[in-house]
Amino acid sequence: MTERMVERMSKEQQFLVNQSMLMMDNFYDKELDLMGSFEEDSSQHSTRSSAHYALGLLVRNETGDVERAVRVLHKVLDMQYDAPDEIYHGTFRTRPDAIHPPAGHYAWKSFAPGTAYFLERTFEKVSEQFIYNLQGADSILTDRADAKRLKRLFHDAVNQILPPVWISYDPNWREFIACVCAIVTAEFATLVPGTLLERMDQAMELAVQASIDRRMSDAIPMNTNIELMHIFITHYYGHRLNRTEWISHSDEQAETFLREFDQFGGTFAEFNTTTYYGVDLSVLGMWRKYAFTERLTDIGHRIEAGLWTNIALYYNANLENLSGPFARAYDMEMREHSSIGVFLYLLLGEGYEHLAGINCESGHDPLIALVGVDVPVEAVPYFKAHQGDRLVQKQFMELCERNEPHANRNLCTAKAWIGANRMMGAMSGSRNTNGQMYPATIHWQSETGERYDLRLTRREVGEGWNTHLRGVTFEADVTKDSLVIEVELDTEDEIEIYFEVRGPFIRQQDIIPEQWRFPGLMCDVKADAPEPSVLFYVNHAEIIYRYVPGVTANKMRFELNIS
Prior knowledge:
By secondary structure, this protein is an alpha+beta fold. The protein contains 14 helices and 19 strands. Helix 2 packs parallel to helix 6 (173-188), helix 8 (224-240) runs parallel beside helix 10 (274-290) and helix 9 packs parallel to helix 11 (294-313).
């Protein structure tokens, strides 16, 4: 019997594969040959997770695994959209029961770059005027009509005619699934049937060309992790399918990416992000291992080394976490929605298994085990022990994906104080509308070892934080013992600016407007802002400052002095 891939791996790689596959086996639906979602409701199914599971099955290759992987990959390929005139052409349903996006009403290729931005802004203005007109028509509506509900109904009507990105389809499924197909082809071409390889190549003809069309039109901008995947799949399949125009495109895109990366000393738009750095490292590992040319390998190596250098600068080995501020992230805790801990475990080995604990990204672990880890030798000590207190600062050009194309890049400064048991971050220059941007952050550890974090964010009243909001900007600065934040609000919506603090033993009586007393940290607060309210939950609290247009000032200022 041919030696299984997992048998050729290191002890750490085997640990990752076995742990991940044990988790994913439990989510596998034998009737549908798809994975139940472990990110949301497990009764749902995820095509992206299924693709990663299939790759893991081929790596493990126990009895029946290859046959199961083949069935799963065929089922994933069944989910591809073949609609050449539509903006979602070549991508994949996120789940099998997803409603087909609207068709025939959006000639997106004939419009200028940024059509998604302009359409969104136009419909926002139309809905505002529509609601205003309705409320002024006494015979139709009363003053008590719910404006938010009317706006939602209007947007629902629009979304039934035009395909709303992130709602009716996810364009990034092209790149995620194409990367899996490339690795399956590169590593397991002799293990899977030729009919599957042929079908994957046919699917990639659609997916890669559609990815290029998206990139060139700039209808939906690509964040860093998707841009890196885009370069890889156009390079890989350009060479595999002998498409010289794809190869030229990938070469040009890689050179442009490197120039932008070098512009500010090795940074890119998704800077200091717990969530997306894990994806970035995975894809750069693909460049390193599966590139067909020495040049792409070299570019990938330089970017990967620079990324690890940045991670080391903002990493605290005592807290086992990245400091803020975060350009884009879901969570403050590195091990919650990220694969960075998985890479660190591969680097550091035995005794660091806890960094690779199961989370919603664990389905990627077999892929990460395949590509491995490559950290510059000078960065390694930062991950083993605290390398001294330091104030660090880097500049980067952010991407505002919902802004006008010629005005969606801003020069930002990410500044952080990294101390032995406390670190703080502050962002300035950002105009990002994305709620995943955290402009002010604190991580610390109490004397008894409990870990805490605090972040500043915002939301429209009654809505969640992970949305795009216009008209809310932050400017923050940090020193060893202070955070200063200025907030400006240019919006007609009621907004909650709030500090979210997580950790055990947080008590209501210890949070008063002028002082927050947390275990291990005292924060004196000077706030030029409305009187706050405080909400308590099981494991966190929110300190909320509410902006009401026409009632409260449209600027807030916070000075947090830490001891």
